[in-house]
Amino acid sequence: MPRDAKQLSPPTMDTLKEGVWKENPVFIALLGLCPALAVSNTALNALAMGLASTVVLLGSTTLISVLRHLIPKQVRIASYIIIIATFVTIVDYTIHALSLELYNALGAFIQLIVVNCMILGRAEAYASKNRVITTIINSIGMGAGFTLALFLVGAIREILGFGTFFGIPLFGPDFQPWAVFILPPGGFIVLSLWLVLFAAIRRRKEQRKEVAHVA
Amino acid sequence: MSPESPAFLFLHAFLINNFVLALFLGLCPFLGVSAKIKTAVPMGLAVIFVMLVASLCAYGINILLVHFEIEYLRLICYIAVIASAVQLVEMTVKKLSPTLFRMLGIYLPLITTNCAILGMALFQTFNEYNFVQSLAYSLGAGAGFMLALVLMAGLREKLELASVPDACTSAAISFMLAGLLSLAFMGFAGLGG
How many domains does chain A have? Predict the structure, then answer.
């Protein structure tokens, strides 16, 4: 069938790239926002959270893709959640063992990866319908896009809120930090500004395309 | 008020550390269902109910898990219980008011993946609240979610009539509003001693 042929087409560069830019989970699809804002007050925390989510995403979508013919349709969501929860528990215990400092900084938000709608969304919309290899590539792209988005938000908040970048002071001793950017309102405002920027870029691109079309 | 008293915990979750505006929990439904007050209120009530049920179940399950020393299964058990509670609410709403059921749409089953619910269950476990404290905390969390949702819906209904720059898509301007609301809620810090 042609529909199957399309779904089983070999993975391309686009499979990897669409998660980073065109379908970026945070900036375009607005998924997984809670961790994107909650732990992104420094670049390091944001990066750690992004990587942890990527590991969970990759592990669970791979397993779901392998098992996609075995999971009955009626209980698929419950099965996906159980699989995701398993990987989250693994990541949670791993971070606890590796770095207690990071574990305390991220707090309950590692365990809350389980309800990150990005992961369940990928499982339902992609992993349950595609081959293992395409799923792996797509998940790496999505994870990279998610990590990038978190990093962008976290970096801005750290630079303005602490005056540092990965803990390195940037502005010298006279800098007066904008405390509001480390606090919750800063998360909303920085994310909102990134959304405006990306929307503006996309609009300009579309307008250019229209102009080219008319000409 | 002592920081342990149920009344303080209620206030704490309701205003001081509002789940949506200070802890960033439950943002997806917060943005998805806050377009109209008419849908925001029933959604808020549904979340309060699920919060209470989930809190009770989580309290019971945690005692069992600790007794059998299988705490590593906590996450899986909690999420399974929340999913069942949501299913229950969904069936009840469908039976009682099909109109409301259609209005809430996809966001009703998505309460399962509402991090506010799981977050509340995890926080109450980490902080080792007793039964009454857990109940007060979950009620505050649910009410806080509803408050934020209704406030936001009111603002967004007004926003429909305002002219905003083209690049500020609905999500971007909503986040800006949420940021200002969050700033306002920071004024509650220190409330109740």
Answer: 1
